[in-house]
């Protein structure tokens, strides 16, 4: 079953109804465990590039995923952010990039329907794999902008054989005010200057935020019976429960206090392999029952 990352809906509610945000904060944030399987152990992340991406753009994503389970970077690091997932029923999820395939000729066209996503994900089969579909800025996906990405699973002959996948779109030209915020001004709310993207690419740096969100949501709620709050068809999950929070002191329309690279003015909160820097969203911590930020 497909899971939807409803960042746009929550994002708009926080801006349109400030009282709504306050009411949410007053409620206990507890993601209930529904006794289902989580993704623990070593997993290969296969990348399916649909549309045209430059080599530089692809390297930003590859470096991010390979940094999740690496200890080479200085703290605060991408790996220290990812370690919070270990608190979900114990055990770690080690992710490394596996195979990559490029569909630069748009074999399914430039307008994709929801059923196209699991079909693309099925290009790779295997045990302990997560298939990630990344669509280029000129590809329209059904529901895009109302959702910045989604994760789901495909049926197998047994529960252990079920595949998991996620999709994230490049929102550089389609809806950057929703899916590339805070690197672009929001479509609603305070029109404060956007942050400078740490890798110089608003679309790709925005994708990193959503890839991070969906990878954490996937390993902690892969089959719709893991950790979540609310209805199963529109759940608040590990990171989507903390939408809009990137640093301490955040509030609606303000991402919080983050680090700034002096030479470029770029905002970030996580160091990574190959000298990369990324801005990562807060993740709900099962021990503190609160959204945890790196800075």
UniProtKB/TrEMBL annotation:
Identify the keywords attached in UniProt to this record, alphabetized: Apoplast, Secreted, Signal
Signal peptide residues are: 1-21
Q: Name one GO cellular component term.
A: apoplast
Name where it's found. Answer: Secreted, Extracellular space, Apoplast
- Per the record, the major location class is secreted
Task: Tell me the Pfam families matching this sequence.
Answer: Phi_1
Protein family (similarity comment): Belongs to the EXORDIUM family.
What is this protein's name?
Answer: Protein EXORDIUM-like 2
Organism, by scientific name, is Rubroshorea leprosula
């Amino acid at each position: 079953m497909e899971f939807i990352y409803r960042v746009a809906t929550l994002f708009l509610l926080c801006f349109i109804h400030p009282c709504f945000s306050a009411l949410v904060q007053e409620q206990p944030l507890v993601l209930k465990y529904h006794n289902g399987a989580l993704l623990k152990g070593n997993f290969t992340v296969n990348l399916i590039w649909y549309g045209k991406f430059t080599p530089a753009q692809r390297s930003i994503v590859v470096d991010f995923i390979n940094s999740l389970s690496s200890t080479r970077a200085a703290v605060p690091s991408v790996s220290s952010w990812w370690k919070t997932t270990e608190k979900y029923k114990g055990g770690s999820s080690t992710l490394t990039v596996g195979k990559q395939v490029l569909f630069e000729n748009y074999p399914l066209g430039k307008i994709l329907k929801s059923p196209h996503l699991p079909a693309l994900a099925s290009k790779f089969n295997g045990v302990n794999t997560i298939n990630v579909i990344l669509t280029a800025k000129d590809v329209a996906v059904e529901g895009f902008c109302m959702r910045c990405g989604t994760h789901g699973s495909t049926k197998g002959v047994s529960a252990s054989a079920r595949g998991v996948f996620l999709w994230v779109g490049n929102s550089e030209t389609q809806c950057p005010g929703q899916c590339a915020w805070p690197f672009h001004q929001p479509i609603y709310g305070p029109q404060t200057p956007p942050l400078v993207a740490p890798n110089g690419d608003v679309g790709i740096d925005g994708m990193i935020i959503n890839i991070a969100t969906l990878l954490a949501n996937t390993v902690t709620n892969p089959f719709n019976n893991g950790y979540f709050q609310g209805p199963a068809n529109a759940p608040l999950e590990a990171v989507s429960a903390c939408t809009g929070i990137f640093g301490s002191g955040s509030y609606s329309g303000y991402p919080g206090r983050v680090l700034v690279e002096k030479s470029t003015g770029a905002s970030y909160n996580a160091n990574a392999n190959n000298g990369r820097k990324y801005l990562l969203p807060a993740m709900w911590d099962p021990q503190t029952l609160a959204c945890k930020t790196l800075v």
